[in-house]
Amino acid sequence: MASSDTEDISGAPEIIATRQQTRFHLIEDKRSSDVTIEQLTLSIRAAGGAGKAGSKTAKTGKSKASSSAAKTRDILVDTDLRLKAGVHYGLLGRNGSGKSTLLRALAAKVIPGLSLATRIVLLQQTATEDGSDTSAVAEPRTAKTVLQYILEGDEARNHILEELKILSRTDPGDGEELGQLRAYRRLLYTRLQRQLAEAQKNAALRSGARGSQARKELIVFEKKVEEARNRAENIEEPIESKECQDELAEASLLMDELQAELDERRLGDLEARARKVLSALGFTDQTMQKRFNELSGGWQMRCMLASTLLQDADIMILDEPTNFLDLLGIIWLQKYLVDLQTESSKTVIVVSHDRDFIDHVCQEIIMIKDQSLVYFEGNLTAYEEDLQAKRVNLTRLKEAQDKQIAHVEKTIINNIRAGKKNGDENKLRQAVSRQKKLEDRMGMQTNAKGGRFKLSRDMAGFHSSKRAAIEIPPEESAVSITIPVAPDLRFPGALVSLDHIWFSYTPRGAAVLQDISLSIHMGSRIGIVGLNGSGKSTLVKLVTEVASPTRGTVTRHPRLKLGYYSQLAVEELRAAGMADPSMTALSTLAAEAAGEMDEADMRGFLASFHLAGNTASHVPVAKLSGGQLVRLALACILWKHPQLLVLDEVTTHLDFYTVQALGRALRAFNGAILLVSHDRFFVKSVIEGNVELLGIDEDDEDELDDVEQTKAEMKRSLYLMKKGKLTLLQNGVRDFEQSLESKVDKLLAA
């Protein structure tokens, strides 16, 4: 029988989770890092749709879900969700495939069969509008300091404090003993309320005879809860009675037990751990004392990450944890999670566009593909190598089999022709025999386990065909992005030239940039890496004319067209969309183009960035996903065919398929690129020109020759920005990684 549950958040899409259950299915209400959910179907229904799934109308008795089917989109259909204790998973899938929906469904425990006692903590990609933590276990505490925010995120400790607060709170007018008795009964009532919420959910998840019994027990339990409420509010027994005195003794004992448990969770130990994690994420003692709501969005996310890492959870979910981290923070988090594999049985699920991070942290891959979950034991690189090997092997098998089929079909035709012409029955029988062989034996020659296919074993029982056809897995990275060709300059020269640049924000302030010289020409590939606060964004402002140097000169080619992607581009578009609900991708590009493109051209251009049809013209900008906003921002700077692209953290919010597609598009771009990024994969592929990372087929000789020719024509340089100075990295990103790994080792050992 089907069992279902929903999550309905006001103004947000409703999550509907169903699975097949027998009437003997039981949920174990105990903590576990293991999850096994069979035949899971996960859907989302647009806000304002029908009511809860499974609720029935009074007149028809039919589910409202059926009347709103048009508004419901399936994310997963009849697939299995399997998580093993202690394993770190990388959850992959294209933007819009449903990764965040699955994570929210897990964190909210709306998936039938998931133990209600399991502790799950979720770090989402962005903070809520009020800046509060969106994890499943933390409550808004934005007015507190960063350190207090972390300390108050301990759910177990908060639960103890809450119960102690209830036990110690008395009503005015009550005597000491009466107040204690009322407080004790209120605590019992509060505990029963929590149990009632779980009992209601558990009754909804069970089906058949056991479901009926659970609902009968629920009615009895609801009466018990109501009685507890009445006993707490209306104390009719005399305080001297044995019953009341026994309860007062129990209240005193419970107070001592809770206090002892609180003492075991020493605040000093948690504070020491919190300071260590915050320090590794870039917080100083001074910033730890700032209020959470005074921090920028990026620093709020770091604070929420620290809070998540310190939770006592069975399953930890990290959705884009490397966003807003510099490479030091990324490498620290990478090593922290790797060490966690041997120190804890905590199950970890990671979503990240950072390919190197996924490769280092994740032991297994879960791919959302065609509304199913596909599992692979190994990291992302191993998954892609395995997929490519299968693709090559199956291609060769299919080519060989196609030749064999063509040969057999030709002999069949010849035998039939000869048999009919000469009246040769043997020829006709041969033709029939070969036709049967063609139908029975062609297709996959191996079974699912890799052994030789055997009909009686591998396809026993009734079936419509003897063997499955050889199907070659399609390319995973089917996403494509096209960057317009940059127009030629009428005369040669540097696009931008910085000559002995110095910069400070105040006349007497410290120099943010010191004696920097840099020239960018057509075809240049220049990357800048460095820690946050080292001066990278300031240098970008000088190149893009947002700021002017304190000393030195900046010269630009008079015919230069420059396209600048700011690391705040997504936030600025989202804010503009919130201010103007009618704003769409099409209207945004129209405002940028200012009449230089007609609607058909604009639609075609947006479609090349996967913003087509109603998505471009009817979906408000405020409702576009982060990845869609990145592509819109790129469209708004690329429509004018710039010769120089300045990209500051452009991969944030993109899935790794789109990151790879953007890398391939930038490889083919004939103009110049100045890239600021913490994404090691992206820097290696775009700046260093690593062909393997770009996903280019080794058998495609023409494309490889083109890459080698392009690499020879382009000047590729990677610089480290440190304390306002630029240093050329001779060995690329690896030099920077090695310099940070020793720092991380010290942070972890502290």
UniProtKB/TrEMBL annotation:
Keywords: ATP-binding, Coiled coil, Nucleotide-binding, Repeat. Residues 225-261 form a coiled coil. One of its GO terms (molecular function) is ATP hydrolysis activity. This is ABC ATPase. The lineage of its organism: Eukaryota, Fungi, Dikarya, Ascomycota, Pezizomycotina. Residues 55-395, 496-720 form the ABC transporter domain.
